[in-house]
Amino acid sequence: MREYSPDLTPQWKRPKAVPEVAVEPDLVVEVAGTDFCGAVVACEAGTVTLEDRFGRRRVFPMEPRGFLLDGEVVTLVRPPRGPAVPTRTASGSIAVPGARARVARAGRIYVEGRHDAELVERVWGDDLRIEGVVVEYLEGVDDLPAVVAEFGPAPDARLGVLVDHLVTGSKESRIAAAVTSPDVLVVGHPYVDVWQAVKPSALGIAAWPVVPRGQDWKTGVCRALGWPENTGAAWQRILSRVTSYKDLEPTLLGRVEELIDFVTAPD
Length: 267
What we know:
By secondary structure, the protein is of the alpha/beta class. The protein has seven helices and eleven strands.
């Protein structure tokens, strides 16, 4: 019989236990001791395949303490059998399974139109419900100063506004400049329409078409791509290709995160 040999290594010299994280598609981790960071695309035979933001793929052994998740050392393990429970929301935030939606805050986020609201819900919906943030759409920003005045922003009821085509010299930039309340944050993206905030690669196209001035932009896009000239159906086609934050341009991601932080900040 083999004799039992106790581990006499002092407790302070023993490596600290680290969390075990089940591998799941799109989980973003950094490989310990390297500068490689990528999303999980495959897991097999004790290895994990990661794809970085440039589309480069590399295979790594799932060694103990071999990866970093949100800056913390972890050990990746094969997912349990059966349906996997997502650990991340579509926005990349840590998922909170079973969490109840928070009672709606007094603060709000306003976006220009229905498509903007649907895209924000698609990616940030779980986060917004946990934070109790309601998103509403305005059907344009021409009357934004009056809308802000009617809302009555205050330190405990902040207002965030996402504006399309917010570039220097545009009509939108002049309207936004007229809103001066410290309890309102107006930010925007440079795109003519929020459609363009979806990466072309998510739709399987090389780039968004250039539509000549004077034409309806959405209709022009449908024509250029050979789609039926039904902008409602086209939008549903675009929205269906968005599964996470990775399908959106960084210029939109940063602005929405900024608005959520603003309206949820302590008084």
